[in-house]
Amino acid sequence: MTSAPDQALLNTMSVGTAGPRIAFLHGLFGQGRNWNQIAKAVSGPDGSDARCLLVDLPDHGRSPWSQEFSLDAYADAVAATLRAAGEGRPYAVVGHSLGGKVAMVLALRHPELVERLVVVDIAPKGYGNLERFEGYIREMQALPLEELRSRGDAEARFSEPDPGVKAFLLQNLRRDGRVWRWQVNLDLVARDAARGAGSRIADWPEALDELPAYDGPVLWIAGGDSRYVKREDGERMRRHFPRTRLFTIKGAGHWVHTDAPVIIVTALRRFLHSPA
């Protein structure tokens, strides 16, 4: 049983005032604002090129928390939020990593809300476990929140050696008065990671294979230095999304939009204004 917030609307931030509607979905441990610079560039200098909605997924940012993880419930929560924000009009939906999975499920379950789809460095398959994130989870759990005096103190105590990853993870740290807390639902992610090969976050539920294919245009972006998208994933991707076009960005890792923002903006602009 899940209790993901499919009734409550998710927290969002808007960028741009006119043009096509675009929703951005972040990855695990991220927030909608991670897409802020890309959204500003896509919406143009006066904000008239696109209306962007940066969504905090359930259990992330300022959005409600769940008791159990469910891709379907995440997608349904995004659907309810897009319906409310766009008055039922369709969006171009851009999703990275976990957000890419949610975007794909959204397109399959609620195709009327997705005019076109951009999936960034993820495939519609199970990845086995959250092994790559287990170290991050341990580092976050080990941070003594009750002892912290300042954000600088937290940065000094946090053992992650990569400054970019450290900044990314610590964006989830919030202070309420004198009390520090994790804004992300860390306990939920840790419980899921403890499932090992049974991780629901890493999985792609077989029931989704029974849904009709999404017939809108799809841009599938992969990082050339990432291992998340492999050549053999193409057949499965096209089974769900027959109008998929793969675009691999050389030199980019899993966080493609951070490694190659200019290329991402150019690709999004071209795709969003291409014929349906």
Automatic annotation (TrEMBL):
InterPro entries on file: AB_hydrolase_1 (IPR000073), AB_hydrolase_fold (IPR029058)
Which segments does the entry list as coiled coil?
none
**MF terms per GO, please?**
hydrolase activity
Chain ranges of the AB hydrolase-1 domain: 24-262
Is Hydrolase included in the keywords of this UniProt record?
A: yes
UniProt KW keywords: Hydrolase
Q: Which Gene3D superfamilies match?
A: alpha/beta hydrolase
User: What SUPFAM superfamilies has UniProt attached to this entry?
Assistant: alpha/beta-Hydrolases
Task: List the PANTHER family.
Answer: PROTEIN ABHD11 (PTHR46118:SF4)
* Protein's UniProt name: Alpha/beta fold hydrolase
Q: Which organism is it from?
A: Terrabacter terrae
